[in-house]
Design goal:
The protein has about 400 residues and is an alpha/beta fold. The chain has 3 domains: about 1-40, Nucleic acid-binding proteins (OB fold (Dihydrolipoamide Acetyltransferase, E2P), Beta Barrel), CATH 2.40.50; about 65-85 and about 225-390, Rossmann fold; about 95-205, Beta Barrel (OB fold (Dihydrolipoamide Acetyltransferase, E2P)). It contains 9 helices and 19 strands. It has helices at about 60-75, 130-145, 175-185, 230-245, 260-265, 280-290, 305-310, 330-335, 350-360; strands at about 1-5, 10-20, 25-35, 85, 95-105, 105-110, 145-155, 160-170, 190-195, 195-200, 205, 215-220, 250-255, 270-275, 300, 315-320, 340-345, 365-370, 380-390. The chain has an 8-stranded mixed beta sheet, with helices on both faces. Strands 6-5-7-8-9-10 form a 6-stranded mixed beta sheet, covered by helices on one side. It is globular, with a radius of gyration of 23 Å. It starts with a strand and ends in an 8-residue tail after the last strand. The model has no long low-confidence stretch (mean pLDDT about 95). It binds S-adenosylmethionine. S-adenosylmethionine binds near residues 255, 260, 281, 305 and 323. S-adenosylmethionine (SAM) binds near residues 223, 225, 277, 306 and 323.
């Protein structure tokens, strides 16, 4: 096998030079002799240099079919059985981390070249929401007099964009956060430039697509699902998964964040034990639960999911949404404790395969799987997979 960058299935290639790197053969010089009909024009002017979207040159439809096949193989279902939620990639990202680096004798804001600490050339980002793209375009000029490198986290919520700036101070005296926020066009700004710390405006915004009973909010550097459209699809699929397993009395929710899926369980009449490690997310979730007067029905546990997954009650559904690290310990606990069903929301297919393998060995079955293409133009995919234990426990 030879790895060749930025080609698509059906390309006819001439490989001129190979190199072996860490046991893998890679083409270091090659030419596309006859391009595949699956190719398309990349949406972004700096596609060739940016380390962000790797698949812009491959037709979206083909990418989706490829991802569908990957998920089908991973969970052992027929490709046609995988339900699909495409997400239009243009302008969909509502959170970002912009790198601030020197560019053209000034300061630039944007993304880094692949495997480099240098920014790509100045160009509008095709995937950022217009409000975040406007922030990116303004940031270099607004911040250039005060810093030469840093990071700007930003998120777009119902109230507008809030940002969190950490940077190295050079040059001019730093104005108040409010002045910089107005120049950047954000409704809230927290900054740490060298030793200078300040904040102004909102520190959290709400996710507009979340309907009750719990409001879900996020700060600029915390976690929220990357796009409103993708999250709408995720929430619909998680709701359907709960209904398929229902009626649901009690849900053990792991990796609950600020409660994005907690409200879905409540809508179905369930009580919830929501486990989350991040203290800010826990605080936001507890606040939302109190504001809705639902303390009787939601227990928010600030703990590592791995540690919290050691008890199960009767008639219980487990809902987990780990990050890219996956949740092997939680799935191992499910194999031991045998809840009535498990809904796994995954953003890392390899970890999903690894984590559910012990359950499948014990006779669990994948009841349903949906693919949400929340990271279109990249190799990543999100999925909602529903598993049920065997009627009679299997011992190995
Ligand atoms: C993919 S996010 C999902 C959050 C939420 N379900 C949502 O949709 O917004 C994963 C969450 O797991 C939390 N987390 C990471 N490691 C954890 C651990 N070991 N135990 C519990 N929570 C953890 C993160 O803080 C983050 O909020």
């Amino acid at each position: 096998m030879v790895l060749v960058p930025r080609v698509v299935p059906g390309d006819l290639l001439r490989i001129d030079q190979l190199a072996k790197q860490r046991g893998v053969l890679r083409a270091t010089a090659f030419a596309v002799i006859a391009p595949s009909p699956q190719r398309c024009e990349p949406a972004c002017a700096v596609f060739d240099e940016c380390g962000g979207c790797a698949l812009q040159h491959w037709s979206l439809d083909r990418q989706l079919q490829w991802k569908r096949g990957q998920l089908a193989r991973a969970v052992g279902l027929a490709t046609e059985a995988i339900e699909l939620d495409p997400v239009q990639p243009r302008g969909h990202r509502r959170r970002t981390r912009l790198h601030l680096r020197p560019r053209n004798r000034g300061l630039g804001a944007g993304f880094l070249r692949a495997q480099s600490d240098r920014l790509v050339a100045e160009a509008a980002c095709a995937v950022l929401a217009p409000e975040l793209e406007a922030l990116r375009a303004r940031a270099g000029a607004a911040l250039g007099p005060y810093l030469d490198r840093g990071e700007l986290h930003a998120v777009l919520g119902q109230q507008g964009v809030i940002a969190d700036l950490t940077a190295r101070h050079i040059g001019a005296e730093i104005p108040q956060a409010q002045v910089l926020a107005e120049q950047l066009g954000v409704v809230g700004l927290r900054l740490q430039i060298g030793r200078h710390a300040d904040r102004w405006g909102l520190s959290e915004v709400d996710l507009a697509e979340v309907d009750g009973p719990l409001a879900v909010s996020t700060d600029a550097a915390g976690f929220c699902q990357a796009s409103a459209e993708g999250n709408r699809a995720l929430r619909r699929r998680v709701g359907e998964a709960l209904d398929r397993l229902g009626p649901v009395q009690h849900v053990q929710e792991f990796y609950a964040g600020s409660g994005n899926f907690t409200g879905l369980c409540l809508q179905r009449g369930a009580t919830v034990r929501a486990v989350e490690l991040d203290v800010d997310a826990v605080r936001r979730l507890r606040r939302a639960v109190a504001a809705a007067g639902l303390q009787e029905r939601v227990e928010v546990v600030a703990a590592q999911a791995e540690r919290a997954a050691d008890s199960a009650q009767p008639s219980e559904i487990w809902l987990l949404d780990p990050g890219r690290q996956g949740a092997p310990e939680v799935c191992a606990a499910a194999a031991r404790l045998r809840p009535d069903g498990l809904v796994y929301v995954s953003c890392a297919l390899d970890k999903l395969v690894r984590d559910i393998a012990p359950l499948l060995q014990l006779g669990w079955t994948v009841q349903h799987a949906a693919l949400i293409d929340g990271f279109a133009w990249t190799i990543h995919l999100e999925s909602v997979v529903t598993l049920r234990p065997p009627a009679v426990p299997v011992s190995l």
